[in-house]
Write a sequence for this structure.
């Protein structure tokens, strides 16, 4: 029986690559890199990278994740269907 992927695995059928995103560096980022995935360190406090593990991406705001996992046309429509008042 296959288990569902962990919540931290992000993928989009239209994205060029999958991104494995977690807050830790040592095992999570290295594990994603070892699996051939792009990795992203969510680092809102701009902490110094304490080790030798280097993520593919480092972001301080989750909004920075959008362009990493979405196509250009999807980015252009972010939030449109949830707006109450259109101009």
């Amino acid at each position: 029986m296959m288990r569902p992927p962990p919540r931290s695995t992000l993928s989009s059928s239209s994205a060029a690559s999958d991104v494995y995103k977690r807050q830790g560096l040592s095992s999570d980022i290295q594990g994603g890199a070892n699996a051939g995935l792009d990795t992203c360190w969510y680092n809102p406090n701009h902490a110094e990278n304490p080790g030798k593990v280097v993520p593919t991406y480092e972001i301080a705001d989750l909004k920075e994740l959008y362009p990493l996992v979405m196509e250009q046309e999807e980015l252009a429509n972010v939030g449109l269907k949830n707006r109450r008042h259109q101009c």
